[in-house]
Amino acid sequence: MPSLAAERTVDAMTTTTKIQPRALVRASGGPRYAVALAVDALGTGLLRPFLLLYGMTVLRLSASATGIAMTVGAVVGLVCMPAVGRWLDRGARSTVVAASMLVRVLGVALLLAAPTGHVWLFATAALFLGIGNQAWPAAHAALVATVAHGRERDAALAGGRALRNAGLGAGALLATACLAGGTTALQVLAAVTGLAYLAAAALAWSVHVHAHPAAAAAAAKDRDDEPAPRMRALLAANVIYVFCLNLFEIALPLVLVTQMHASPVWSAAIFVANTVLVVTLQVPVTVLMSRFPRRSVLAIAGVVLTVSYLGFLAATSLGHGWGAPAVATVSVVCTIGEIIYAGSATALVTALAPAHLLGRALARFQLSTGFGLAASPAVITALASHGPVALWGSLAAATLLSASAVATEKDR
């Protein structure tokens, strides 16, 4: 637990733009936990962007079979969330984080053991990877909420996201450099990923963070049995908000390459710029916005995202010469909206939920996130087939409606 001096330091941090790295690391779970997050993210970056390629080149599966197996694994992985929520509400914290990493070790082991052409073993591996990927965000948020409180918790969650994005980016770059080795390189990357998950799990478990649900439940009883927040509007809106997380991997490459006939270099440059901006601005922007209520900040994120979608619509009408630079410029606005959203959404859930029901609230939130991420590729590609107005106009309207629902929902 952070000392009183550290808490005061971080409290001061949340009211100014000055950021104290040591206080931020302490509020995020401590140095060992920060190393665990970095190692886990690095390992994930080595394999996750190339999992489709692994199925197609190493296991000789068809593109459709590989894609379906990955989608089914991610969606079915959401089934574990109610159990994860109940486990967290019994007080487990670092144990659940470590378990989410160990499950992915099993997934990687199945990948390495799968014989050529064996789609069911690949699908099982994708399922275990999906379970770990779905369980980790809720477990991490619960751990941070146990260690830190108030606005220091918001900054700590933002710091974790920035660190994770840095690790994912570094892992992806390293993997890209190794891909010249062909199928052998992919197998080596998978093995290294498994070792990284194992090391990260050991580090996370060694932190030994545990909550005390009995005391929290007793405190809630003193407050007339405070119920869990319904958050219906927030959860429904979150399904739409999370579309912004897939834009840089799906929507923008689709629009730039297939509709605007721009060089793929533009898509790559925009994706790299998005990663760099998230890593460098996630904590400062979250701290800057901490002077406003979290619900208002989340609504502002929806407005910024809506403006960016309308900007993309305008940019696609400029033609081949100016279209790609305009899309790149608007993508900066979209990234700012993503940063504001990511810095406020989970923080709002942790602030709304009673301590003894935090796990179930975070599990429900992750269900909405996972569903939105799973549905967005199909929705985006379907809308894009009907033209820019259908794609960007629909996203803008849905996001603005979601922002309105978030802003008007009443907290109990």
Automatic annotation (TrEMBL):
Pfam families from the UniProt entry: MFS_1
Keyword Transmembrane: yes
Transmembrane regions: 33-55, 61-84, 96-114, 195-220, 232-256, 268-289, 296-315, 327-353, 365-384, 390-408
Domain of life: Bacteria
InterPro entries linked to this entry: MFS, MFS_trans_sf, MFS_Transporters
Membrane topology field: Multi-pass membrane protein
Keywords: Cell membrane, Membrane, Transmembrane, Transmembrane helix, Transport
Subcellular location: Cell membrane
Main location: membrane
Gene3D superfamilies: MFS general substrate transporter like domains
GO cellular component: plasma membrane
GO molecular function: transmembrane transporter activity
Designated name of the protein: Major Facilitator Superfamily protein
UniProt source species: Streptosporangium subroseum
